[in-house]
Each structure stands twice: as structure tokens, then as C-alpha cells.
């Protein structure tokens, strides 16, 4: 099992999760985060830290696409290990449907 970031993170990018990760497996894009599925040790401490409920275990239905999404971008983006301010759009975008198709950016974030 691994944990993955889903589209609930897009345009919010809360980083509470990265502070508690014991193996630093989060990677930062311009407007979202991802978890490297091969680096995640399945401890689950990140899941309850996410205010947007964007982190899910891969054992839930239809998570295969998110495992591959997280794998792809974690190999392209810089690692993030410190908490940063969420995006200014976080409050209004939290819980909005269809964010992957509407807002996702492949651009990398700044990382640490």
C-alpha cells in the first residue's frame, strides 16, 4: 500500500503533510503536491494532516490513476520537506470538483 495525493490538493497546496512525513517523499508542483509511491513507507501520518482531504490510500477504489499520476510528477518535481503557506486560492478552491482538468499545472514548484 502507498498513499497518494488526489485532485483535491490542486489550487490549495496545503503543506501540513510534508512536515510530518518521516521519509520526505512529497514533491512540489506549481499548484499541487504529489507523493512518490516507491518512497512512501505507508505510515499514514500525512493523511489526517491534510485540510483538503486530498491524501488517500491506494487501496481505495479507482486509485490506480492517482498512483501513476503521483509517480510521474514525483520524478519530475523537486522534493519539499518544509511547511509553506497554502496557495491564496486554497479556501475558495477546497472541495471543488474537476480541478485536475480545469487547473492542473505540470510546472514544478520551488521545493526546499
UniProtKB/TrEMBL annotation:
Gene3D superfamilies: 3.30.70.20. The keyword Nucleus does not apply. Residues 1-30, 31-60 form the 4Fe-4S ferredoxin-type domain. Its cofactor is [3Fe-4S] cluster; [4Fe-4S] cluster. PROSITE patterns: 4FE4S_FER_1, 4FE4S_FER_2. Keywords: 3Fe-4S, 4Fe-4S, Electron transport, Iron, Iron-sulfur, Metal-binding, Repeat, Transport. Coiled coil: none annotated. Residues 88-112 are annotated as: Disordered. PANTHER family: FERREDOXIN (PTHR42859:SF2), OXIDOREDUCTASE (PTHR42859). Ferredoxins are iron-sulfur proteins that transfer electrons in a wide variety of metabolic reactions. This is Ferredoxin. It comes from Paracoccus rhizosphaerae.
